[in-house]
Write a structure and sequence with these properties.
Cytochrome p450; 4-stranded mixed sheet; two-stranded antiparallel ribbon; globular; Cytochrome P450 18a1-like; monooxygenase; heme
Length: about 500
């Protein structure tokens, strides 16, 4: 009986596979990596380090690859020039129809990261304009960042050179920068609600990254406890309630069009749209639901990537103490120890700036970028025809480890970002914020935070591994972002 059931099951799988092969016209697709299994496609070939798998296959089969992930066609782009070409073009600016995208952004109709079309255009334009008004890239925001850094430095001082996990303090400090932009408010490191929201956002980022297969294998969704999908939804509901409470408080206090923060700016835009309903954007874009989604995206994207980059940065400094000392010498000479570093010091500190760039290249915080799609129709790329609705993975890790662009890519060498006369030089192929129409809108804020936090930390402290600590594992853990494995450090006060 068991043998008969097994035979019937195999016949069923074969029938599904044959029907699927007949249904799909492969056309002029890029090369693939091997046999396509029934139901699951090429997923069995993938390890937990998909970015490394894709890069290795790119070297073997070609810079453009096609894979079947379940029933979905995916094209992986492992080449800088091809990524740049594709993402400059309108036809590749869509977002794929993904299960996890849909459940976390209400079918890709909320926010700016996962939307497309008019909603994306108006939300992105509003975010760029408002963040610029809030001081993004300007001295007014710089002073707020430095105030947060002062609080962080005092908290580190309290550790009295004992070993500690830096991540909690760093998360709260970076999140407070976003908090000032959005809420015009500082939250204490012991504020349970605020720190809880930050922790649960990061939990969701890790779960969504690890539950990647749910996008392609629908039958896995019935195991919600194993995949922790229910945790994601519970956390998201809590975030939305928390953000909506802040929106309501702002609405009660908002008057005379006075704008103090991002929420006020959105409320003012809502008022403008209500008075001129004929405007293209109208209430479909400028409402409390969209505002709540934008706050969530600013918090998650604006906190996680920066804290992760800085966490990697301190790891690299501890493993390369001579580089840490070189940076501190530059800080001492150009800034001293009696004033805080500022963005105006950056041009005078090329080695420090080059080290931050090398940290970004080596860390590959978002190794696979954010997926794109050509939803409007088939498109040509690299001599191949990409069918409509194909999911596009930009493998930024492959770009940042391409030996043609970066000689000895596994070596940590800030000098690769310096010209012969010692000035900062950013070569083609440096894409930590992606490229094209949908590159990261928080790039200028992230650059400011990275420079100020990094230099202020190294101005006051030297960082080292605790006595007897094992050599850190530099492989990282891939979710949506590539994070270092938990580690402890000692912050030694510089005399």
């Amino acid at each position: 009986m068991l043998s008969l059931l097994l035979l019937l099951f195999l016949i069923f799988l074969a029938a599904v596979w044959l029907l699927d092969q007949r249904r799909v016209s492969h056309g002029n697709l890029p090369p693939s990596v091997g046999f396509r299994f029934p139901v699951v496609g090429h997923l069995p070939y993938l390890s937990r380090d998909a970015h490394i798998d894709f890069a290795r296959w790119g070297e073997k089969y070609g810079k453009l690859l096609h894979l079947w992930m379940g029933e979905k066609l995916v094209v992986v782009v492992n080449d800088y020039e091809l990524i740049k070409e594709a993402f400059k073009r309108e036809e590749f600016s869509g977002r794929p129809d993904m299960f996890l995208f849909n459940v976390t952004s209400e079918n890709r109709t909320r926010g700016v990261i996962l939307t497309e079309g008019a909603i994306w255009k108006y939300n992105r334009r509003f975010c760029l304009s408002s963040l610029r008004d809030m001081g993004m890239g300007r001295s007014s925001l710089e002073s707020k960042i430095l105030d947060e850094i002062d609080i962080l430095l005092a908290a580190i001082e309290e550790k009295k050179q004992r070993a500690f996990d830096f991540s909690r303090l760093l998360d709260a400090s970076i999140a407070n920068v976003i908090g000032k932009v959005i809420f015009n408010q500082h939250f204490g490191y012991d504020d349970a609600e605020f720190t809880g929201v930050i922790a649960s956002i990061q939990t969701n980022i890790r779960i969504v990254g690890s539950a990647f297969a749910l996008n392609f294998l629908p039958f896995l969704r019935i195991f919600s406890r194993l995949t922790r999908l229910s945790t994601v939804m519970e956390n998201q509901e809590w975030h939305e309630t928390y953000f909506m409470d802040h929106i309501k408080k702002h609405r009660e206090a908002f008057h005379d069009g006075r704008v103090n923060d991002f929420i006020d700016a959105h409320l003012l835009q809502q008022e403008s749209c209500s008075k001129q309903p004929e405007q293209d954007a109208g209430p479909d874009v400028f409402n409390d639901i969209q505002l709540r989604a934008l706050i969530g995206e600013l918090f998650s994207a604006g906190t996680d990537t920066t804290t992760t980059t800085l966490s990697w940065g301190l790891l690299y400094m501890m493993l390369h103490p001579h580089i840490q000392q070189h940076i501190q010498k530059e800080i001492d000479e150009q800034v001293g120890d009696n004033k805080r570093p500022s963005m105006s010091d950056m041009p005078k500190m090329p080695y420090t700036a080059a080290t931050i760039l090398e940290i970004q290249r080596m860390a590959n915080v978002v190794p696979l970028g954010v997926m794109h799609a050509n939803n409007a129709g088939p498109a040509e790329l690299g001599g191949y025809t990409i069918p409509a609705g194909t999911t596009i993975f930009p493998n930024l890790y492959a770009v940042h480890t391409d030996p043609k662009l970066w000689p000895e890519p596994a070596a940590f060498r800030p000098e690769r970002f310096l010209s012969l006369d010692g000035k900062v030089l950013i070569p083609e192929g440096f894409v930590p914020f992606s490229v094209g129409k949908r590159k990261c809108l928080g790039e200028s804020l992230a650059k400011m935070e990275l420079f100020l936090f990094f230099t202020c930390l190294l101005q006051k402290f030297s960082f080292q591994l605790p006595d007897g600590a094992a050599q850190p594992d530099m492989k990282g853990v891939l979710g949506i972002t590539l994070t270092p494995k938990p580690y402890k450090l000692c912050a030694i006060r510089r005399s």
